[in-house]
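Morning. Coffee machine broken again, so started the prediction first thing and wrote up yesterday's gels while waiting. Chain of 173 residues, entered below exactly as on the submission form.
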Amino acid sequence: MDHRLFYALWPDDATRSALLALQSQLSGGRPTPAANLHLTLAFLGRQPSSALPALRGIPARWPDFDCSLRFEKFGYFQRPRIAWTGMHDVPASLSGLQQSLLDALEEEKIVLSGEQGHFVPHVTLMRNAPAPTMQEIAPVVWRATRIVLAESVATPNGVAYHVLATNGDEDGR
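Came back before lunch.
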């Protein structure tokens, strides 16, 4: 059985609420459900069940990750019609984490599906959306500490994300 997987920074409840407040400033698209808000570090695509033990262990390599992220702008990806929030200045610790994660996947001989492209850290707020009419926003500061391996699962109500592992433990709690 294959699993559609990704690594992400997972917000705490206060950050999730602040991101929802940003989302409420946008209109005309399909809002990302509150439980699905995250910052993708690496999209793995479909991976076999046999890869899960190695993939679950990777977040534990960064048990004490702690990075302050300052979301201060709206952005837009034209082709997939995604409205998002992001940063003007990406902290070196975030870029370093993302590169270390890619290195760990290479060490484990995990083949990523699709192109990873240039890392543009962002939180998707709306899909099938028009471009935001404003770019600058009141900043949301996120003290990011939780790195997760998550699975994307199709449900009758849309896509749901399930945390499979996180830094600090390997059982997703």
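The first helix runs from residue 13 to 23. Going to sketch it on the whiteboard this afternoon.
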